[in-house]
Input
Amino acid sequence: MSNLIVSKFGGCALANSEMVKKTINLINANSNRKYIVVSSPGKRSKNDVRVTDLLYVCYLKYTKKENFTDALNEFKARYSEIISGLGISFDLDSEIDSIKQKLFTGKSKDFIASRGEYLMAKILAKALNREFIDATELIFFNRDESLDEERTYEAASKRLAGVDSAVIPGFYGNIAGTEIHTFPRGGSDVSGALIARAVNADICEKWSETTEIFSADPAIVKDPLIVRNVTYDELRELTCMGIRVIFEDVILLLQKVGIPLLIRNIYNPDDPGTRVVAKLPEDLNRKVAACIVGQRHYKAIKIEKFGLNRMHGIGEKVFGIFAKRGISCEHYISGIYNFAIFLKNMMFDLKRKEIINEIREAIHPEKIEINKDVALVAIIGEGMGTVKGIFAQIFNAIAAQDIKVHMINQGADNLNIILGFNDEDFENAIRALYQAMIVDQDKI
Ligand code: ASP
Output
């Protein structure tokens, strides 16, 4: 049975010739790694510069009529080191000349930014002796810059059908037939997911420096368990709670067709990494939660109004006040005559008076109370809400620490239970919940 893998390598996996060699060995170690999607060379050390940033500098300097030679030379030096380290022949000079020409002929910022991935893919293809296929043949955007998914899958699956293996630049695609458009920064992961879908891959790999997904913040809990298996839904919840491993779009793209995502660490290739799947393996030794995550410094806006439960359009009126200012209400809970909105947006602080007045005018509440310094902690895991006795376990753990719970909210999808605490109780609450829900979960 074939096991087709699309592997996406991030900037750190291609940062210099040493890393590129490692990446080449990894690719060659598994003949199922057929389609390789690459970022451009990333940082070689903490204070280093990504080549994409060098390209943005070139573009900016050009538009300001400043000299961009230094930035372009720096860009060139990065590739020159990789080419000589790999010992391949590659006409870098004419590629650099072409970038310069394109700047002078008024090519777009996106075009210039895309040259990092373009060159990296070309060099890697040469080193691997694989076909280079430009992303402009595979990934398509509509004129309004939205992704044309249908056309992308159609074109990419057709183009790659007879191709045994290839190297493809990430981060950009074709717009309006002849122009280039880029995804947002870090967008090569999206390219990887799109190619995985187009070729109906069995696995989509993401190789980066991303450290493990911990079941709790290691700065709070000593040696927390590493999450090796997580569902798409769980990962999306984690993303919403501030654990950014990957763009939510990437999860959604793969989730729609059930292609597993393997998150691997380039600095530790023997580590199995984390598997993101639709359904957890049956033999997984996890009964309830995958992770305990949270954030401090929320504001809780509590609104009280008698008869609220019988009124129409309250949600529309109140949320609309936030929405028109671009403030998202991150969490929301409701009681009988009251409800509370939790948010972190700074804009709220700036427009606070105005917003509160508008809420007063719109629904005439009896009371509006704002609590600051609220911490929200989420217990995340598939099917959690259906586990018998889970609330008793949670409250026992919290009560044993003498911590006050301000609110509790069980997600309708049974994937999370969110608790609100005072900011100062945040770490103790996480430790207590970790112990109860992750370590001693067999007791439930
Ligand atoms: N090179 C681009 C960036 O630095 C895209 C990517 O790495 O995914 O954002």
